[in-house]
Amino acid sequence: MQSSISNHISEYISLTPEEKSYFFSLLTPLTLNKKETLINAGDEVDAQYFVVKGCLKAYEIDSQGDEHILQFAIEDWWISDFKAFFHEQKATLNIDCIEDVELLKITKADLELLFEKVPKFNKFFRIKLTNAFLAMQDRILSALDKDSAERYLDFLNTYPTIEQRVPNYLIANYLGIKAESLSRLRRKLTNL
């Protein structure tokens, strides 16, 4: 588990062996099974999670009971209800496991300690947060400006291996289209 996150971090910052050791001491391994819930709407959220293995979805349920997927998280991605995490409020998102998952958890309190003792982690998490913000902005603009075929191709760029791992109806939900429309779209793109 540690080698996965170590490789991930080394893409952005260099750590001494002592800094790595301290960081690893703050992480808690967590294993969940397919269909288990990591976070329920209404939960207190005091941690964020690094995905070592598996796939999760973060979603909201609207007042009509319809699910709206905001994010998939696969290996080397971070997931949480970040609004609840940063603002110390109850979760509005649900996060469920699509596959069996292995996670590394870091609490907000431990993250603050990490920033104090290893300041270069401020840079790491700033880069991750900036990248997440830019990805969300791209997704919003894509929903406003692009047709379903273009959104689907963008999705495949963002999640190149996910089609074999996630049911079609979940991908369609993420794209904001019907599952039947996604099937037609795939057939059309395959025949080009």
Automatic annotation (TrEMBL):
CDD domains: CAP_ED. It holds the Pfam family cNMP_binding. It comes from the Bacteria. Residues 11-115 form the Cyclic nucleotide-binding domain. SUPFAM superfamilies: cAMP-binding domain-like. Transmembrane segments: none annotated. This is Crp/Fnr family transcriptional regulator. It comes from Joostella atrarenae.
